[in-house]
Specification:
By secondary structure, this protein is an alpha/beta fold. The protein folds into two domains: about 140 residues, NAD(P)-binding Rossmann-like Domain (Rossmann fold); about 160 residues, 2-Layer Sandwich (Dihydrodipicolinate Reductase, domain 2). Helix 1 packs across helix 9. About 45% of the residues are buried.
Length: about 325
């Protein structure tokens, strides 16, 4: 049994992580840390856990009692926390923030479709960003084949949970509902990891990645529309993508249109690949809280401990 601890347990990603681990057949939660909620039941903050666990948040913890530590605090906090605490050498760490996505301090970038073998032998995992996951999955086969040779254009829309649990002017219901808006156009922080990783895979790629993120009026999910010039015929492109993801249990390539209802509440990524003239168009859909965060973190945990990658993640989308 894998013994897990969670730091920063009050946010959306932590809530989803707890839900997954509570139902994981090979894992048990030893502690969930939250200074502001210490003593409160987990289900008082994460209402969906009502009836699943009576565990309470804690303000203290024993790092020697766990096998894996999940860091779910805000961006920038993981580096501070690790500097202030002595984590035993045998404890694996999975950071869901962006602090170590540059693979500094011994962290391995945890996108299984790209780095499955490295993840299996790692001690520290930097979980990818949600937009970064959706966009990289749309482009990995091209980069691996040395076919990213031109500017990449991305428009992607995300649900309100992508902004975190703390309300703000652009996340509260009365503003977000029946609304759509652009934010951080061409400057989104996930561009750093996307560009860095694609150039690691295909060093000759030196074109721009133009990314326009959008806020959607729904709670969860990301739909990314990605296109670039490509010389391959459509049949060859489909063969390339199908081959690249042949061993990826959660990423599926389809000729049919994809939508958010197919992936929300699952760890799946769906890719629709089509050629239009000299352009390749890939539509990528994921759940930002699962494949884009906590589901992928559990997927990485499974790989770290030699389990089937799908353990505890055989989640089904709603039929409606």
């Amino acid at each position: 049994m894998i013994r897990a601890g969670i730091i920063g347990g009050a946010g959306y990603t932590a809530g989803e992580l707890i839900r997954l681990l509570v139902n994981h057949p090979q894992a048990e939660i030893v502690f969930v840390h939250s200074t502001s909620n210490a003593g409160n039941r987990l289900s008082e903050v994460h209402g969906g856990l009502e009836g699943d666990t009576d565990m309470c948040f804690c303000d203290g913890f024993d790092l020697g009692a766990i096998d894996v530590l999940f860091l779910c605090s805000a961006h920038g906090e993981s580096r501070k926390w690790l500097a202030a605490h002595d984590v035993p050498a045998g404890v694996r760490i999975i950071d869901l923030a962006q602090d170590f996505r540059d693979e500094s301090e011994g962290f391995v970038y945890g996108l299984p479709e790209w780095q499955r073998d490295r993840i299996r032998t790692a001690r520290r995992i930097a979980n990818p960003g949600c937009f970064a996951t959706a966009i990289q999955l749309a482009l990995l086969p091209l980069a691996a084949a040395g076919l990213l040779r031109d500017e990449v254009h991305v428009t992607a829309v995300t649900g309100s949970t992508g902004a975190g649990v703390k309300p703000s002017a652009t996340t509260h219901f009365s503003w977000r509902t029946a609304n759509l808006s652009v934010y951080k156009a061409f400057t989104h922080q996930h561009l750093l990891e996307i560009g860095r990783n694609l150039r690691r895979i295909e060093p000759a790629f030196d074109a721009e990645i133009d990314f326009v993120p959008m806020r959607g009026d729904f709670a969860r999910g990301i739909l990314a529309s990605v296109y670039t010039r490509c010389t391959l015929e459509e049949a060859d492109v489909r063969k390339l993508y199908a081959g690249y993801y042949a061993t990826a249990p959660f990423t599926h390539v389809t000729e049919r249109g994809v939508d958010l209802k197919q992936v929300v509440n699952t760890n799946k990524a769906l890719l629709q690949v089509a050629r239009h003239g000299d352009k390749l168009h890939v539509v990528s859909a994921i759940d930002n809280l699962l494949k884009g965060a906590s589901g992928q973190a559990v997927e990485n945990m499974n790989l770290l401990f030699g389990l089937d990658e799908r353990e505890g993640l055989r989640l089904k989308a709603s039929a409606f």
